[in-house]
Amino acid sequence: MRALGRLGRNQRGVLGGLVVAVMLAAGTLAPLIAPYSYSTQSLLKRLQGPSAAHWLGTDGFGRDLLTRVIWGSRVSLEIGFLATSLSLVVGTLLGGAAAYAGGRADTAIMRVADMFMAIPALFLILVVVALFGSGLVNTALVIGLVTWAHVARVVRAECLSLAARDFVDAARALGAGHPRILGRHLLVNALPVIVVQATLLLGQTILIESGLSYLGLGAQPPLPSWGNMIVEGRQFLASAWWVATFPGVAIFVTVLGFNLFGDGLRDALDPRLRAGN
Amino acid sequence: MARYVAKRCAYAVLMLFGVSLILFAIMRLAPGGPEAVLIGGEFSPDVAAEVRARLGLDRPLLAQYASWVLAATRGDLGRSFKTGDPVATLVLDRLGPTLQLTGGALVLALSVALPLGVLAAVRRNTVWDALASSVSLFGVSFPSFWLGIMLILLFSQTLGLLPPSGLSEYGREGDLGARLRHAVLPTLTLALIQMASFMRFTRSSVLEVLEQDYVRTARAKGVPDRRVIWHHALRNALIPVVTVVGLSLPVLVGGAVLTETVFAWPGIGRLAVGAVFERDYPVIMGVNLMVSTVVIGANLLTDLAYCAIDPRISYR
User: Which ipTM score applies to this complex?
Assistant: First the structure.
């Protein structure tokens, strides 16, 4: 509760939380709040600038951009949440296990993590998505499985510091088994760090997904994703700036919201981690 | 020192071996193969089998991997399935423009981020601090490809100041001025994204060092503020910043994939994108191995750079 109170007093954190909430609501309620159909084309309405009828204008097929931005949030957030969840589960389990087991298991897990971190994530994701197919679930799985290494490193470091504390010795002395010590004592106490990682990672996964969509490997048309809307808008850059601009603003605002919220959460949950304070 | 370097080099080689194994496994586990792309249209299973045999893909996986590793140790990364060109030549040809782009972005990002990060720490809670915080927060939230497109919209389409794409104009490849003009927008795009994290770390690192006893002692002895900050504080504060620079290399090189695509920059990122769409396995392996070598090599240099910055760090 005290952490919530601290978060409530952090203006930037609250602003980020609000942005995240609005985007989540937009994605969830897309079928209800989107003013038009995201796929109905109208050549008579193509490339119209922002107006009262079409707040963000229309694209090259005459489709309402606001509608497509709202539906695009659904795609981005779906992939973002799925990929982040997977990355967190794999990273937390492996990072926690590496810290707790130590020795060869620790070395083996962290060397594999090093290998994943040595290949630039986008290169690896590009290879896997292009070869295995680019459906929503596939894309989310791949992003999650490629970004676990960073989570594992952070969780391992936190668990290592926790493992040296007296309450872990006390639990062991009371006869707690390995799964109980790892699950109930180490990972539960590492939760603040994991939650902050999750929030920041969500922003990153949304950026990666939009990049993949830009390369033609994300959501496939006519399903709108912010990345593929920017690609479509690129060809009209000279005559219709709004087509490529607004989906990018949506990505920027969403990722900024997650980053602000993540920073706020970090300050609220663990004052030791405050950046530069 | 020599023992440490040898140990780190051996580790780097092991890492590369692991990376190649991961990539090989991913490519061979994927459904389908390069024959559909190479033949195009409809084809019979016999034709597909013939193409696979010609490419050596009908051999046992272990044999394929072993011969690839053996050849790679001699610097032979195979030939492109599509063009038949040696992969090593293809990759090295494209490495130059990518290193120019990422190197330029790194220098630009550091030359803005370091002074602004120090300024934000020294003048904490002032307008400079707010500016640095905003830049760093905004920087990590921009999609790089969109930022590139917006820069094209502003500087090429609207103001007509800079060219929107390519390495240089056709026929003027040797003209340094033309090449520099073409490099401005992609370098700026990549640098703006990186600037953010460098600035954030410089600020927090300098803030931490300014609290240390030796800084207080230097001030008590009457050492001028400028010298305290640039000589005593920054040098010590640089260690975590160097770590972040080393760790940011995969992000920087990864970002080059999108930046090169937006600006039609003929670097390794565009080669990778083309190769994965064409299922050109040798090129995919070659590109990723080269990129990983650059990243692992740079991380090794980062570790060695600690000694130059902080003589207290010893190698064991």
Answer: 0.88
Q: Is the CB of residue B259 less than 8 Å from the CB of residue B85? A: no
Q: Left if phi > 0, otherwise alpha if psi is -120 to 50, otherwise beta: which for A62? A: left
Higher pLDDT, B204 or A245: A245
- Cβ neighbours, 10 Å, residue B55: 19
Nearest Cα neighbor of B253 from B101, B82, B140, B29 is: B101
Tell me the chain A residues in contact with residue B140 when contact means C-beta distances shorter than 8 Å.
203, 255, 259
pTM: 0.87
**Segments in A34-120 forming alpha helices (H):** 65-101, 103-118
pLDDT in tens, B34-92: 777 777 777 788 888 888 888 888 888 899 999 999 999 998 999 998 889 999 999 99
Distance CA A121, CA A204 (A): 11
- In whole angstroms, give the CA distance from residue A256 to residue B286: 36
**Mutation for testing the A interface, residue in B16, B22, B141, B193 having most A CBs under 10 Å:** B141
With CB atoms and an 8 Å threshold, state whether B250 touches A203: no
CB-based contact A215:B273 (threshold 8 Å): yes
pLDDT at residue A275 greater than cutoff 50: no
Give φ, ψ of B209 to 5 degrees: -65, -35
Average pLDDT value for residue range B250-269: 89
Sign of CA dihedral B67, B72, B73, B75: positive
Contact flag B145-A211 (C-beta cutoff 8 Å):
yes
8 Å CB contact between A152 and A113:
yes
Of B143, B157, B276, the CB nearest to A238: B157
Do the chains contact at A122 and B257, CB–CB below 8 Å?
A: yes
* Contact residues on chain A for B208, CB-CB shorter than 8 A: 276
Q: Render pLDDT for B100-133 as a digit per residue (tens, 0 to 9).
A: 999 999 999 999 999 999 999 888 888 988 888 8
Partner residue opposite B295 with nearest CB, options A118, A237, A245: A118
**pLDDT tens-digit map of A158-180:** 888 888 888 888 988 888 888 88
- Residues A127, B288: C-beta atoms closer than 8 Å: yes
What digits encode the pLDDT tens for the residues B5-28? 788 888 888 989 998 998 899 888
Q: Identify whether A222 is preceded by a cis peptide bond (ω within 30 of 0).
A: yes
